[in-house]
Design brief:
By secondary structure, this protein is mostly beta strands. The protein has a single domain (5-209), classed as 2-Layer Sandwich (Alpha-Beta Plaits). Helices cover 11% and strands 43% of the residues. The strands form three sheets. Strands 1, 2, 3, 4, 7, 8, 11 and 12 form an eight-stranded antiparallel beta sheet that branches. The two termini are 25 Å apart.
Length: 219
């Protein structure tokens, strides 16, 4: 750890960190993924000069699951659609295995992007001030947008669970290829437009440590 790291406590009544191998019905990982943790921090404070890199996740509450049956639509409405779209005629029921009463302590590092001359300590301090005030650009979510997250300082957090388990492969992040902008919009130079990266996840005494690179290294 260095002076660019921050810690934030994140809690919520419900969460769902979907496994990418499940196509239709969602099944959650037992713990928040590094990319979902990064999304929480970016909701509090984001800046183009740096990116958040998740280093550790402390599990502060027992893992509890529940089933949820909800109505979803099969397709997205297109902006070019000339015919009216009636969502009630395109609904289907899908089952999801979610988490409840989650509580995490996330430790992340502010890592500068290329050609960034600003000191990372500046952005770290801005993040800490916004976190203490409860400020955010948009409400952080725990996997899906309808599962809102509460956040606050790490001080006073309980000790991690007495839990050690090999979780196997877990989503590390999504890799997006380079693209270009033209009159018709953004065009990817490679297909698919993104692909998942994984790492071998393990929880030791309630702490999951995230490696610097995924399995196989960065593409």
């Amino acid at each position: 750890m260095n002076g660019n790291t921050v810690s934030v406590r994140v809690r919520g009544d419900f969460a769902c960190f979907t496994r990418p191998e499940n196509k239709v019905e969602r099944v959650s990982y037992p713990i928040i993924t590094p990319s979902a943790a990064r999304g929480v921090l970016e909701a509090i404070y984001w800046h183009p000069q740096f990116s958040w890199v998740t280093r550790e996740v402390h599990v502060l509450a027992p893992v509890r699951t529940f089933g949820l049956l909800r109505n979803e639509v099969n397709s997205k409405m297109s902006l070019d659609r000339r015919e009216p779209y009636f969502a009630d005629e395109d609904r289907t029921q899908r089952y999801a295995v979610c988490l409840r009463d989650v509580d995490y302590l996330i430790t992340a590092e502010a890592r500068p992007r290329a050609r960034s001359a600003e000191p990372m300590a500046k952005h770290r301090d801005i993040f800490l001030r916004r976190m203490l005030r409860g400020q955010c650009y948009h409400r952080p979510a725990l996997g899906t947008r309808e599962f809102a997250a509460e956040f606050g300082p790490a001080e006073g957090s309980p000790a991690p669970l007495d839990w050690t388990e090999d979780l196997g492969l877990m989503l590390w992040d999504l890799q997006y290829p380079d693209g270009k902008h033209g009159p018709e919009g953004w065009r990817p130079l490679a297909k698919p437009p993104y692909w998942p990266l994984f790492f071998h996840a393990r929880v030791d005494e309630g702490v999951m440590r995230v490696p610097e690179e995924p399995i196989g290294g960065r593409p």
